[in-house]
Amino acid sequence: MNFTATTKKPNQTTCDALIIFLRQEETVPEEKIIDALCANQIKKMRESGDFSGEASKVRLLFGLENLPRMILVGLGKNADLTLEKLREACSITAQTLKTLPVTRVSIMMPKIPKASPDEVARAISESLILAAYEFPYYKTSKQNKPKFDDIELLVAAKDKRGADKGLTEGRMIANSVITARDLGNHPANVATPEHLAKHARAIGKQFPQIKVNILEKKDIEKEKMGGLLAVSQGSNEEPKFIILEYLPKKSLPTVVLVGKGLTFDSGGISIKPSDKMEEMKYDMSGGADVMAVIEAAAMLKLPVNLIGLIPASENLPSGAAIKPGDIVTTRSGKTVEIVNTDAEGRMILSDALDYAKKYEPDLVIDFATLTGAIVVALGDDIIGAFGNTDKHLTALKAAAKATGEKIWPMPLEKNYEIFIKSDFADLRNTGTMRYGDSIHAANFLRHFVDYPWMHLDIAGVAWATREKPYRPKGATGTSVRLVIEFLKRFRK
Ligand code: BES
Ligand code: MN
Ligand code: ZN
């Protein structure tokens, strides 16, 4: 999708459709009219109640003198109007445009309370691209792909520079979210650990400022990454440990991103029920998100040294697979009794979190589809955020407010430590108390951490079984926009 900002007036455009956002209170659309007929029509539609400006209500006007189509999109009440409301309205706009024979679209940039032209433009390009997203790779029949791809934002002269910047930034960020979505949607027979490694190498080619290093099985053995090796030993696919380094300047703060890259989670010997097991191809979403954020960091030139660590593996049952009761030694030297082979995420993350220490990081953030329990607790639209640093959690909350990707703080409850003590090893990989598994998992990870750290349990948000605004069904890439925003504002 191509975006430009222009100072043209609405009656100077030559588009196939002109989009006008209107709030509930806006009776006379002042500068937004293109001619007398248009003004008259809008007025009549408001009087008749055909268009109230209610949030995300859409009406199409046809047969205007100077314009093929005009699409009115409601923004709701001014008092409730936020960037997220605008993103939702753009999402509906994209759904409408998809069904029309429209290529060139002009949009009158709306004013959003407390938001700069830069932010408004960014929200528009970001949400239009994300809402139009499709995953067509495995359909052999010809798809009617959305045709609209040329978008012109009509702005006042004083807003032009900000709008240009916002449009570009929104496009870059949305495209990295799409990277993450695609990786999550590809089936596990394609998106193997090797495929993730290939993708990382491709990022390295595209962005020479990102250094990519893949540890192969023999290197992983040398590193004594016992958790990753144990989880992968039941599979024919070899594990990979993917390292991406974007290090623009020594004096900048260092942040390590760790992502769970479990390309298929059958549960292993503690096998999962078959219902919905096909969705477990998205168990590498954390790894995908890390690659997406690093890609965006290079494009946006974010002022941080950023390292991505992705332990990648399958979790399958076989004669070679780990068994309940097995004890393994992780890279840190700590031993773990594998009570349930389905609690594999924390095993592979333990080695990556330990590896992160060598960067002497100012902060480590891990992304993982770690527990079903977080979905029970917070549902499919809220990230569970654990951490040992209140300052960064507060900053993450602010980034969540700005991006609309919601987080909720979860406790690293010290009194629950007793539930992950093993009778035979240092730790067990599941809690002896069945409930509160998201907390047991986070407490488990804490044993491998000696730096400021946040753990994002994205099991609920990474996959959509229902349509959400600008998040179609399937892999969502949720947390990418959140963490990019967080890193943009990052202070040690
Ligand atoms: N990948 C799953 C967590 C998950 C569940 C992600 C549902 C997305 C949706 C993880 O590896 C897992 O299987 N966790 C177990 C842990 C249990 C055995 C202690 C779970 O949540 O059931
Ligand atoms: Mn599992
Ligand atoms: Zn898993």
CATH architecture of the largest domain: 3-Layer(aba) Sandwich
CATH homologous superfamily title of the largest domain: Zn peptidases
State the CATH topology of the largest domain.
Answer: Aminopeptidase
| Content-based structural category | alpha/beta
Number of helices: 13
Number of domains: 2
Total number of strands = 20
How much β-strand is present in the residues? 15-25%
Shape descriptor reads elongated
Kindly provide the name of the CATH class of the largest domain: Alpha Beta
On the 0-100 scale, what is the average pLDDT?
96
- Terminal CA distance reads 36 Å
Regarding quaternary structure, what we see is single chain
Are there runs of 5+ residues with pLDDT below 50, and where? none
The largest β sheet comes out as: 9 strands, mixed
Instruction: State the helical fraction.
Output: 25-40%
Molecules bound to protein:
ligand BES, manganese (II) ion, zinc ion
Radius of gyration: 24 Å
3D architecture notes:
The structure is a single chain. The protein is an alpha/beta fold. It has 2 domains: about 1-155, 3-Layer(aba) Sandwich (Leucine Aminopeptidase, subunit E, domain 1); about 175-490, 3-Layer(aba) Sandwich (Aminopeptidase), CATH 3.40.630. Helix content is about 35%, strand content about 20%. It contains 13 helices and 20 strands. The strands form 4 sheets. Strands 7, 8, 9, 10, 11, 14, 15, 16 and 18 form a 9-stranded mixed sheet that branches. Strands 1-6-5-2-4-3 form a 6-stranded mixed sheet. A hairpin with a 6-residue loop joins strand 3 and strand 4. Helix 3 packs parallel to helix 4, helix 7 packs antiparallel against helix 9 (about 345-355) and helix 11 packs across helix 13 (about 480-490). The model has no long low-confidence stretch (mean pLDDT about 95). Zinc ion binds next to strand 10. Zinc ion binds near residues 265, 283, 344 and 345.
